[in-house]
Amino acid sequence: MIFGEIPIEDALGAVLAHSTHVRNVKLKKGHVLKEHDLGQLREAGVTHVIAARLQDADLEENEAAKRITEALQWSGVRAGPASTGRVNCYAETAGLFTVDADLINAVNAVDPSVTIATLKAFDRVEQQQMVATIKIIPFAVPVSVIDRIAELARGHTAFGVRGFAGSRIGLIQTTLASIKPTVLDKTRRVIEARIAANHGVVTSELRPPHASKPLAEAIRKLQKANDFVVVFGASAVVDQDDIVPAAIREAGGAVNHIGMPVDPGNLLILGELDEKPLIGAPGCARSPKENGFDWVLDRLMANVPVTKSDIVAMGVGGLLMEIPTRPQPRDPRPPTARPDVAIALLAAGQSTRMMGPNKLLATFDDVPLIRRSAQTAIEAGGRPVVAVLGHMAEQCSAALDGLNVVIALNKDYASGLASSLQTAIRNVPSSSDGVMMLLADMPALSVTDLQAMIRRFQSAGGQSVVRATFEGKRGNPVILPRILFNEVFSLAGDVGARHLIERGDIPVIDVELGEAAALDVDTPDMLHRAGGTITEPIR
Q: Whole-prediction pTM value?
């Protein structure tokens, strides 16, 4: 590729390096110059342009990105189209991201013109979440560079997503007189929520005395009917011959490792019986906060084996306990005394699981659900309330008639949630310091719930994410501060802003709202149980 200042008479077919605006001529960066363009530039008095000319041995940026995409091997991932030298790759299913770090490093070392960026190994991902991006930095790349990368990639899986396998899991909690049943009940709820988030199910629970023989019998009983078993001991493990490891061996199993260099999570036990995993859970796993148990559970539920060496390698990055950090704000604006919060009512979806009717037009106490949700947002103080409509927009708009809401039409609603978030951001006034993303199909949320979240956002100076939770697990709605608005436009497909929120560079404040934060009405049965009435026939 030849790059530099080129006389107009030699610029036919060259790629414009910078956007050009002269009189009535507007040409974007990357535009391939044609005779018509050159004529207009001459008339405007332009004699030279900064451009790139491709040589025979060069590949144009999109073709280069496409060829690298074709050379790489992966699983559980789909590639998007090549555009401006970039190909984004998305998870086909929820699961764990795996990556050959040595291969990615080797590819990135071939030539600075070609880059591949991915998530970290074993990051938990949702369906349609972006997991990698392939980017060609200049306008063209020599074919020889692409050939070298293809040779490196041959026979290797660069990255992939291991989908959650729908695991069946048995739960055992040993008992002592000092352990209250309410503690055991709470532990079960927390574990059930963790496992459900990974598309699995707790099939059964046993609560034997805290002694090796009854625990061994419980392990044998549940291990036969499940993919693996999780054991919570009534007291912490202090020795390899303590009750839980002794019971695993008495049941005929093996204890592969005790302890892990992750804090919290040190006292985890990794074992197996009949070639199925066994986990002795640390006490911290009774809490919904992230700990080392989550790392092991996620892998096993995605059918990723966990060995002693895997556990040992978790020490780097294993400091999860809460420690003071110095925040690094990305927006230099000083916080306002009382930040304003807009509320975006996300109501553009197609209700595909309702088998015909639009759930947002179902009624609760004779009020359409979308109107009920909008009234809640208005009374909570949304400034303003923006209703993002798409599917059946005319009927939904009619249901909002007379309410003080801004109607924003998402014409691209069929592409998924990301387009609705972007439509919302476009319609939030510049005076708003944050926007609450409120799903319109959550009938249990109250005015008090939304106001509690808004107050937390305001008390934090409008610089933090505020997220609703149910028993410590993330839920909805979520308030995004203005410092994240532009990044919403990097999203694509049926994904929300979760990975923007959870990457760690913006403070996140969780507000416990109870079951209301997790209750939506995606199916006719869920809607009826929530108290709604379907007014349209089910197909």
A: 0.58
